Amino acid sequence: xxxxxxxxxxxxxxxxxxxxxxxxxxxxxxxxxxxxxxxxxxxxxxxxxxxxxxxxxxxxxxxxxxxxxxxxxxxxxxxxxxxxxxxxxxxxxxxxxxxxxxxxxxxxxxxxxxxxxxxxxxxxxxxxxxxxxxxxxxxxxxxxxxxxxxxxxxxxxxxxxxxxxxxxxxxxxxxxxxxxxxxxxxxxxxxxxxxxxxxxxxxxxxxxxxxxxxxxxxxx
Length: 220
Prior knowledge:
The protein has 9 helices and 2 strands, in the order ααααααβααβα. By secondary structure, it is mainly α. Among the domains are: 39-102 and 193-207, no CATH class; 105-171, no CATH class. Helix 4 (39-56) crosses helix 6, helix 4 (39-56) crosses helix 9 (196-207) and helix 7 (155-161) packs antiparallel against helix 8. The protein starts with 13 loop residues before the first helix and ends in a 13-residue tail after the last helix. Mean pLDDT is 80; it is low at 5-11, 28-34 and 213-220. This is Reverse transcriptase.
């Protein structure tokens, strides 16, 4: 019987444990079970690998097919609502909705980030963190928070737009070089890369009502 068919611990195949050993751990195999508390969240975490692929690889065929119909701007987090979506997209969009707050923009050249809408810099930093009297401000992109013609934060403007706590954090964020594009990262891995293990570790405490540990990005 092949490794994809031979039942192992909890009925999963040998190849499953080979591919996802970093998530389930050796201890779970010794103890006779994988110890996953919530299989739904585990599936979401696995589907997140496809979301991460859509973020970073826009040349493969699946991206071209699905983006043309569901997110023509090329940003999977700004997908259109569609009637009767395909099964493939229906599965992916569930993961997008569950995981989107764990993703955000890392500051590079400051051209792509809409600070009134996007998550950026660190978890929970978006248009909802503006000072209430600045909601209708003309400040829209990251460059609007910089000193004119310089790649440094305009401290007075930052503190005007945000409270002191957020202002302190923003002014400590590094700004990338001119040639470095803004990019989407996963906030719950110190290297900014998505992993199923980190996603599951983030989703499970949220499901249980706890605020999971978070990483704040201070360097490119």
